[in-house]
Amino acid sequence: MESRELARHWRYEELPGVDLLRARYVRKSFLRHTHEQFVIAAVVDGVEVFHHGGGDQYAGAGALALVNPDTPHTGRAGVPEGWRYGAVYPSSEVVGAIAAETTSLRGAVGFVRPVVDDPYAVGVVHQVLRAAEEGNALAADTLLRVVVTRLLWVNGGALPRRDVRSAGARNAGRAREVLEARMAAPPSLERLAGELGTSPFALLRAFREVHGMPPHAWLTNARVERARRLLEAGTAPAEAAVVVGFSDQSHLNRHFSRIVGVPPGAYQRERKNVQESA
């Protein structure tokens, strides 16, 4: 495998609600983060290791790494030569519609196991990406439905419901609302806990339990997600960095690349190309 790192993160206008990625990473290390969409990552060379559900998961050649929306995970190379993969990121609406049409699953559906060995499905994911690159809308749409259906049949299930009942869980939800509203100038943990009428350590423990990461890590992820929306709307990366609370563009670049997989400038150029071709 080549040592040079390459990545393209883009959208195809004929696949609404789906992000696409081709990448080869060697030294890349993804921060603990979440996605609003599903992650269906098909590894063709090397090994990816990602922390998920309390332990490290390994996806080698011929395997898929599967992550449900809003599920914290990381990502790094599992072998010195890194890993090469392609990924599709369908929204919950896209997956839900496919599940309702082709399976008996209903409600909030997702993947049960985070790694599935399935060379055939890996090949279909890469066919989806190839069809999108070639502008073959019929093939891209058909093959996406084929691979999502297959994975739901072999590894699908109902997602557990999270009922916010305890005072700690309610405080974690309120803390998230505060951080979303004051993203550019968030309070300290002590001040935030005081505003919510709890202690810093109690809030930290509750936030971890509910959101899967401490407040500062969650805030970094939320800032990157909001920066994505701003970049898609045409905001310059330097301006987006300030709006979401990063100190400067280099600060945004570092975190954006370690969560999305590409720098914000490259991300925005791909979105601009889609808009111009639509």
TrEMBL record:
<dbReference type="InterPro" id="IPR037923">
    <property type="entry name" value="HTH-like"/>
</dbReference>
<dbReference type="Pfam" id="PF12833">
    <property type="entry name" value="HTH_18"/>
</dbReference>
<protein>
    <submittedName>
        <fullName>AraC family transcriptional regulator</fullName>
    </submittedName>
</protein>
<feature type="domain" description="HTH araC/xylS-type">
    <location>
        <begin position="173"/>
        <end position="270"/>
    </location>
</feature>
<dbReference type="Pfam" id="PF02311">
    <property type="entry name" value="AraC_binding"/>
</dbReference>
<keyword id="KW-0804">Transcription</keyword>
<keyword id="KW-0238">DNA-binding</keyword>
<dbReference type="InterPro" id="IPR009057">
    <property type="entry name" value="Homeodomain-like_sf"/>
</dbReference>
<dbReference type="InterPro" id="IPR018060">
    <property type="entry name" value="HTH_AraC"/>
</dbReference>
<dbReference type="InterPro" id="IPR050204">
    <property type="entry name" value="AraC_XylS_family_regulators"/>
</dbReference>
<dbReference type="InterPro" id="IPR003313">
    <property type="entry name" value="AraC-bd"/>
</dbReference>
<keyword id="KW-0805">Transcription regulation</keyword>
